[in-house]
Amino acid sequence: MENTKELRTWLDDMSLPHPLVIAGPCSAETEEQVMRIAHDLKDTDVNFYRAGIWKPRTRPGNFEGVGAIGLNWLKRVKEETGLKTATEVANKAHVDLALEADIDMLWIGARSTVSPFIVQEIADALEGTDKVVLIKNPVNPDLALWLGAVERFYQAGIKKLGVIHRGFSTYEKTKYRNIPEWQMAIELQTRFPDLPLINDPSHITGKRDMVFDVAQTALDLNFDGLMVETHWDPDNAWSDAAQQVTPERLVQMMEDWKIRKVTDEEAEYNKEITQLRAQIDVVDNQLIDILGKRMKVSDQIGTLKKKRNVAVLQTNRWNAILGNMILEGEQRGLSEEFVLRMFKAIHQESINHQKKIIHKV
């Protein structure tokens, strides 16, 4: 994509004194539920009211949304509260109905983004519209696939474009519902700084008590806004109950989030250094996670050595690792001294793990 500066125009035109905030229930359940939450949010810093009308579910038989009737509820939200409205669309029929209901913002879900055929169908249906269109990252960590979806909408003449970072699926058990893979969002932001970037901490965490911290990390990384699922009775929500927060909690979070503003050269420096340090924090967390995984493998090796009565230290293997890592480090600008110190520490921790297993009675 080239000459993409117009992509940020719609966000700049809003002249927001704070990050863009999109909030509302995961799913529209009843008209009463939709309206109650909307009235709780109408006099806050929330800019768009979101509600899922059609819900793609992993397995059949689960609640799949109320369907088109929910669009009438969103129309009522706009009439009574003045909030702009947003919902997910997954095919041409959804687009046609959402446009007829004058929904202000449409987003493409992670399950749709993985399919160029689905993305193209939706892009064709939206060609020339002035609605805001946000594209969630695909469920798998594939930056090219994500950007390919953006390009399809851009080529369809959609200028009010943005992306939503909602994390990525993994078979590994982590503290997140969807691992954030912050580095991918950072790379996208670096390559296309004019493309508004929204974070979805609700889907990344899957747990309401983690939403604030993930949202703050996103703000530290200079994200443009947040999409937070909000429900007046989250424990009894019909979908994704564990990750939704109450309107009262959302208001408190919006007050507590630290927003970095630029007013002079010193502020510009502080903003840049905060963003870079946030990137360091992301990488450091990844390092700890990787080291934890390495030690789990070491534990398995220790169990195997105990079973086979093999010595913990295997000198030939250790020397081969060091030689390979020194070469790899040189290619990445790391000194031999640093690589040696780092891997000696890792090796010692690995030996300690294996010793505990071998000597355990």
H-E order: HEHEHEHEHHEHEHEHHEHHHH
What's the total helix number? 14
Q: Which segments are poorly predicted (pLDDT under 50) over 5 or more consecutive residues?
A: none
Counted up, domains total 2
Quaternary organisation of the protein chains = single chain
Task: Could you tell me the CATH topology label of the largest domain.
Answer: TIM Barrel
The CATH superfamily of the largest domain appears as Aldolase class I
- Report the C-alpha radius of gyration, rounded: 24 Å
| Sheet with the most strands: spatial strand order | 1-2-3-4-5-6-7-8
Organism: Aureicoccus marinus
Coiled coil: 259-286
Pfam families: CM_2 (PF01817), DAHP_synth_1 (PF00793)
GO molecular function: chorismate mutase activity; transferase activity
Explain what the structure shows.
With 361 residues, the chain is α/β, with parallel strands linked by helices. The chain folds into two domains: 5-259, Alpha-Beta Barrel (TIM Barrel); 268-358, Chorismate Mutase Domain, subunit A (Up-down Bundle). Helices cover 51% and strands 10% of the residues. It has an eight-stranded parallel β-barrel, surrounded by five helices. Helix 6 packs parallel to helix 7, helix 12 packs across helix 14 and helix 13 packs antiparallel against helix 14. It starts with 8 loop residues before the first helix and ends with a helix.
Task: Summarize the topology.
Elements: H1 9-13, E1 20-24, H2 31-41, E2 48-50, H3 69-81, E3 84-89, H4 92-100, E4 105-108, H5 110-113, H6 116-126, E5 132-136, H7 143-155, E6 161-165, H8 182-191, E7 197-199, H9 201-205, H10 211-220, E8 225-229, H11 247-256, H12 265-308, H13 315-331, H14 336-358
Parallel strand pairs: 1-2, 1-8, 2-3, 3-4, 4-5, 5-6, 6-7, 7-8
